[in-house]
Amino acid sequence: MDNLDDIRRELQDLADRLEQCDRAYHQLDDPLISDAEYDALRRRAEELEARYPDLIPENSLSKRVGFAVADGFGQITHSIPMLSLGNIFSEEDVYDFMDKIHRFLGIPADEEIEMVAEPKIDGLSFSAVYENGQFVRGATRGDGAVGEDITANLKTIAGLPRKLSYDGGDLFQSNTPAFVDIRGEVYMAKQDFFELNQNQIAQHKKVFANPRNAAAGSLRQLNPAITADRKLSVFAYAMGRIDGINWATHYEFLEQLKRWGFPVNPEIRICHSADEMVAFFRMISEKRSGLPYDIDGVVYKVNRLDLQRRLGFIARSPRWAIAHKFPAAQAMTRLNKIRIQVGRTGALTPVADLEPVNVGGVIVQHATLHNADEIIRKDIREGDTVVIQRAGDVIPQIVRIVPEKRPADSRPFLFPHICPVCGSMAVKEGNDAVTYCTGGLICPAQAKERLKHFVSKEALDIEGFGDKNIESFYELGWVKSPIDIFKLEKEHSLEILNLEGWGQKSAVNLFDAIQTVQKGIPLNRFIYALGIHEVGEATAKILSARFKTWQQFQTTMESDGVLETLTQIEGIGPVMAQEIADFFAEDHNRSLLAELVPLIVIQDEPERHIQTTPLTGKTVVFTGTLSTLTRPEAKERAQQMGAKVASSVSAKTDFVIAGADAGSKLTKARDLGVQVLTEEEFQLLLDERKKTDYDANSFDLEEQENGRTK
Ligand code: IVH
Questions:
Q1: Which of 1, 48, 483, 643 is the most buried (most CB within 10 A)?
Q2: Which domains are delineated in the chain?
Q3: What is the rounded distance in angstroms from the CA atom of residue 549 to the CA atom of residue 572?
Q4: Whose CA is nearest to atom 7 of ligand 1?
């Protein structure tokens, strides 16, 4: 009779060995053993597992889906950017929104512009691409331009068609466009959410706070088998690139979606006026709690697609649509304690520890208090009863205190003058409302926060390196600076394996994630990861786009005249420039970089196709009445073509575009010798662009972002 313990041990050894070999083979391209040896190990494991199914180890091949996914999700560039929506919060805003649309289009206020009103589903947006009618790939929204490849996970969602169906026989089938990119929302129905949590409780697993989090957690599983296990649903509501069909209206497009087999929300209605839109909003608000899925507002969209195209976009949101959000949920609770958190930059942020309370379906235990002034302004004290508010994903806020409920012995909160973490002086500078710890590098709180920032999703994105791990590795003295992260496997792997909560699998995953990052990280993310004050994601992108390579960036930052070089870049102001220059002037930052940079492959900024038009960089002035475009529309078009639009003519003006009855501006242009274009000539320029690349959606997100920060 075999000894079961021996068998168990052998199976575990085999699984570990095979896992190691797989990793070496698939991820490091560096096989440890020959194929024949590998096959022999594998056969032995399979034989034993067949005889002792109860002893199969967790990391056995038979339980693993594969290694290809361990690197995280692949990336998919969207056929056209996936944008977000502007928000409005009141009924009055609905009327303003419609006014703006009328004005932009030059349609009289009393003339109808048909709108479509849709519930705003509280889930995660997706894009699904069909080639010749077959679902081929799907992605998350990501940063709008590039999303994560969730093809395998989307395939597990029953509601999403794998094939576009057709209702007109062969004729229609042969008419199915070759390329169809559909956008919509993945969500978890309330009932499925409830059942999932029941199961999680039964299995002592994490409980999800709300259906949206559950949907996100389920969709972003590297193992699609887990996604398949969770019940997810979809609604389709928007289009990406679709070749060959031109619908006249959004509503007709929705009808087509239904024929293709997509679930389309049944509440969607056409509205003929702002009054009807408001009525729809009220009706949906009433219905909200009874709907089988969570919604967080209503989306209004201009129905006619030609009008949508004319309206175009502001920054990342369409001008032809808006989200009307439900009011934030509020609740009353007791503020137990005001705690001071020290952030990455040394800012002392007061946080309210609350008696846990349910606010619109989410249990809230903390709220931000912003800074010392805010506490004084709202006279917030420990022990107070407070009204808190939560809107969407936003951190809960304290709206006000309830004075009647203030305890008799209450005392005003004294904001500390020393850092509660390192004991250094904490000071306020100038008019800044924020108090900063002056401890700099000696302050453990700052050091830890910098490390958390360094590995965070938007920076190096080292998966499996959450805040808790950073905290404990820091306390243990294993990770004090970013460099230590890359020494972790060599110097502390055995100790990590022995830490509570860690196993072979989680440790290997962490080391893999670290190695993956070392193999290549985009320049902009590396710059962001450095945590230079004032340099957020957008600025990091600007810097990356301007300097192209780390080498070039670092050399410039360390040379004379850096301030001037930086302030000349659009989107970089003097304060930012000073912070960046200061960072590179600090000795400890320089020596950190000297050690860090050789450890990581920093990828050059990819070459971008930059569109130039006859108006790129030119200053234009409009005058007179245009007959084919409204002023705002004309201005928008000129800006889309890279022009600056000015209101008065000067020697710096490149073009004056003159409509009917042009007056003094035209005379001045002639006097100064500025080139004058008629409306027809301006139209020709626009048409020229339309022919080559015009697509209301296909603008460069980066350029927009830069333009806005300017
Ligand atoms: S339309 C270009 N319609 O809301 C416009 N979005 O806050 C694309 N959402 O990113 C969006 N329900 O994830 C649209 N009926 C609906 C929606 C909807 C939910 C989400 C979507 C979007 C976010 C913007």
A1: 643
A2: 4-63 (1.10.287.610), 75-325 (3.30.470.30), 332-442 (2.40.50.140), 443-485+487-520 (1.10.150.20), 522-599 (1.10.150.20), 619-692 (3.40.50.10190)
A3: 18
A4: 85
Adjacent-strand bridge partners of 427:
436
Q: Pick from 263, 260, 267: which is nearest to 235 by CA?
A: 263
What is the spatial distance between Cα 686 and Cα 629, in angstroms, rounded to a whole number?
12
For Cα atoms 166, 171, 175, give the angle at the middle one, nearest 5 degrees: 70
Nearest CA to ligand 1 atom 9: 120
- Residues 491 and 564: their CA atoms lie apart, in Å, by 44
**Ligand 1 pocket residues where CB is under 6 Å:** 83-85, 118, 120-121, 125, 185, 237-238, 299, 318, 321, 323
Active-site residue (options: 120, 231, 301, 452)? 120
CA end-to-end distance (rounded Å), the chain = 78
What tokens does 28 get? 């490091």
pLDDT digits (tens, 9 = 90+) for 88-103: 989 999 999 999 999 9
Mean pLDDT, 10 residues at a time, the chain of 710 residues: 77 84 57 68 79 79 46 85 91 97 96 98 96 94 90 94 73 72 97 93 85 90 87 97 92 95 97 98 95 96 97 89 90 95 92 90 87 92 93 78 94 94 89 87 91 94 90 94 94 91 90 94 96 91 93 94 90 90 91 94 84 84 90 86 88 92 90 91 80 39 32
Q: Name the DSSP class of 163.
A: B
The whole-angstrom separation of Cα 68 and Cα 22 is 10
Q: How far apart are CA 580 and CA 578, in angstroms?
A: 5
* CA distance linking residue 705 with residue 539, whole number of Å: 10
| Dist. CA 323 → ligand 1 center (Å) | 8
385: enclosing H helix or E strand: strand 385-390
Q: How far, in Å, from the CA of 631 to the mean position of ligand 1?
A: 29
**566: burial class by Cβ within 10 Å (0-12, 13-18, 19+)?**
buried
Distance between CA atoms of residues 70 and 215, nearest Å = 21
Q: Which residue has the tokens 């599983």?
A: 221
Do 224 and 156 form a contact (C-beta atoms < 8 A)? yes
Phi, psi of 521 (to 5 degrees): -140, 135
> How far does the centroid of ligand 1 lie from the alpha carbon of residue 423, in Å?
47
DSSP line for 283-344: HHHHHGGGSSS-EEEEEEEESBHHHHHHH-EETTEETTEEEEEPPPEEEEEEEEEEEEEE-T
Give residue for tokens 């930086």: 566
DSSP reduced 3-state for 98: helix
State which ligand 1 atom lies nearest to the alpha carbon of 321. 5
* Residue 131: both structure tokens together: 């080639």
Burial of 50 (0-12, 13-18, 19+ CB in 10 A): exposed
Distance CA 564, CA 580 (A): 12
Nearest CA to ligand 1 atom 10: 84
Coil/strand/helix, residue 641:
coil
What is the biggest distance separating any 2 CA atoms in the chain, rounded to whole angstroms? 107
Instruction: State the Cα–Cα distance between residues 430 and 420, nearest whole angstrom.
Output: 22
Taking the complete model, does pTM exceed 0.70, yes or no?
no
Atom number of ligand 1 nearest to Cα 119: 15
652 has catalytic annotation: no
User: Taking a C-beta distance cutoff of 8 angstroms, is the pair 291, 119 a contact?
Assistant: yes
State in Å: Cα 184 to ligand 1 middle: 7
Residues 6+ apart with CB under 8 A from 467: 452
Cβ neighbours for 243, distance < 8 A, ≥ 6 positions apart: 177, 178, 179, 180
Cα distances (Å, whole numbers) of residue 571 to 458, 537, 681: 20, 12, 32
* The token pair that represents 540 in the structure block: 């990091």
